[in-house]
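TASK: fixed-backbone design
INPUT:
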């Protein structure tokens, strides 16, 4: 199970149809592949919504719909909001998002405080939508730890189901989130296998296995030994192996825990 991917972008980069790619994942002739149970693919911009909806017609493909913080201005569009509000009511939609805050880099011509305010407003509105619909929430946070935690505490019920995805923030934030939201899980990607991923591995050590999700965030960040290649959900085993090594447990223990965690967060 891949708890977070961008399958539309992945297939475009691989230059494959879904059926062709799925068949290749089922074969044994590529060590990057593994039989794929299911995945949650994310539509987090207006342009990605239709392609994501189409992919959910495939068996084992579920979706999250929302607006990414770097596209936060799109939330102001009534057309965008109406499209998302329609899509989140479908049976294959398991989450709102990804949404959140990303303060990592702003262009020289950007009004930084205005951009941050736009992201915060979009994030708060999507947390309200998640609360209203009862769907899980997918959170993206980068270089915005204090604001992320503050806004989540202000706008999200303590018992809400949350996936903080592609976690590269501090252990302090991870532990604060786990304490504040008992049904929250943290997703780790191929970064946990990187040579320069020591900081992330330190966080992994401090997150209990019953609060970890496995994700690729494909097509980005292919795990070792596939750095530089297009990442895809069939590479989940390498991430599981890296988590298992970090926790010093057998990889089957990680698979079982992550599968149960995915059921608890997404209901699949």
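OUTPUT:
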């Amino acid at each position: 199970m891949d708890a977070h991917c961008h399958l539309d972008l992945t297939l475009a980069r691989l230059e494959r149809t879904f059926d062709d790619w799925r068949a290749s994942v089922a074969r044994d002739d590529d060590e990057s592949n593994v039989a794929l149970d299911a995945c949650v693919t994310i539509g987090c911009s207006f342009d990605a919504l239709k392609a994501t909806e189409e992919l959910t017609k495939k068996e084992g493909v579920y979706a999250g719909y929302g607006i990414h913080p770097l596209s936060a201005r799109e939330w102001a569009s009534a057309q965008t909001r109406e499209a998302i509000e329609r899509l989140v009511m479908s049976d294959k939609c398991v989450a709102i998002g990804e949404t959140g805050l990303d303060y990592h880099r702003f262009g020289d011509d950007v009004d930084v405080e205005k951009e941050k305010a736009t992201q915060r407003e979009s994030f708060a509105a999507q947390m309200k939508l998640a609360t209203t619909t009862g769907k899980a929430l997918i959170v993206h946070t980068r270089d915005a730890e204090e604001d992320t935690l503050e806004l989540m505490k202000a706008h999200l019920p303590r018992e809400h189901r949350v996936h903080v995805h592609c976690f590269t923030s501090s252990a302090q934030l991870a532990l604060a989130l786990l304490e504040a939201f008992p049904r929250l899980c943290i997703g780790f990607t191929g970064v946990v296998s990187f040579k320069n991923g020591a900081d992330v591995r330190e966080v992994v050590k401090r997150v209990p296995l019953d609060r970890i999700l496995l994700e690729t965030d494909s097509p980005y960040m292919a795990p070792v030994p596939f750095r530089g290649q297009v990442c895809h959900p069939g590479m989940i085993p390498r991430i599981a192996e890296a988590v298992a090594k970090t926790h010093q447990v057998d990889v089957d223990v990680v698979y079982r825990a992550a599968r149960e965690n995915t059921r608890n967060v997404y209901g699949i």
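COMMENT: The domain at 2-266 is CATH 3.20.20.140 (TIM Barrel).
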